[in-house]
Amino acid sequence: MKKKNFKIIVFFLILTAFSPAFGALAADSVFDRVSGNLSDTAIEAGLRDRESTEMADFALYLMRIINILLSFIGIVFLILIIYGGYLWMTASGNEEQVGKAKKMIIASVIGLAIVLMSRIIAEFVILALGESSAAQ
After folding, report:
1. Which of 10, 70, 85, 92 is the most exposed place for a label (fewest CB within 10 A)?
2. Which residue from 62, 108, 56 is spatially nearest to 82, judged by alpha carbons?
3. Angle (CA) 134 44 38, round 5°
4. Per the confidence metrics, is the pTM higher than 0.70?
């Protein structure tokens, strides 16, 4: 009975962890439709040419791929932080295990900060490249 309850709890935890992604996927498809229509309108009005629009679309596509990869890496670091906290809580006064948990948490926080900074830098560079190609 305990094993069955544990499986049910794990199932609902995983379901709740991924439920925000469903709304993001729906919003992404709406963004694609609106963005595509705006690009077509700009081309027809003569504000942009097709090549610059394709380059901007490529930049957005590249940015999405980078964001997805960095999001998964961020999730891994978050799991490592939680695991380090678990090790610390179950150390039972063992200084060696507490030290190992502290090192894991510190390294994970540093890794998470690096991932966040790389995401910000990647978005800035890709958006700057997309805007510079659209301005030509």
Report:
1. 92
2. 108
3. 65
4. no
